[in-house]
Write the structure tokens for this entry.
Amino acid sequence: MSAFFGPLDSDGRVPARQQTRVASFLISAHGALGRRFALALPLRLESAWQTELNAQFYNESEIVSLLLRATRWMPDLALGYLAAAWETAWFPAAADGIPDHALALAVDLATLAHAIHAGIRPAALLPVEANANDPFVMALRRVEFESGRLLQAQIIFLKGESLVPFRDAVSAALERRHAEVRKLWREILEGIDVSSDENGLKS
């Protein structure tokens, strides 16, 4: 297995098979976040944190749209059962130990977003020879940049005063979501002949 995407073609592009599998996973993950942010949005914004929720929804939608258009797609028969497993992993699961159900679901969403934004670094898998002007290469770098920016909102929420009494519950939920995302990402990389470290992430 290689530590990076490849072998690149003569134009420095990532193989279509790898593009298809990685983009499908990222679209599933960011699409799930977008749907959950959309459902959490009220019809009328009444507080400052809701404006951030609105921004997150549109940013996730932008990531999905970008990947749909920048990827060189090819048929992949495995995507049917893989997508089913991914979508199941994104299901809401209220954080244990938080009696307020709405808050417990908000913590679950924030921890899932944290795990996806912090744990998946596709641009780190691009070899230095990759064509910097290729749409897929540019898209992966854009996704990673946006993920780093969006991550700050999850950190602020999870460290907020309202969750201080539930610090252990938040930590447990965060650890669980990170473990789930690491496992799925590791499986994706192994399925396209890209090696991963012991945590399932590119170091």
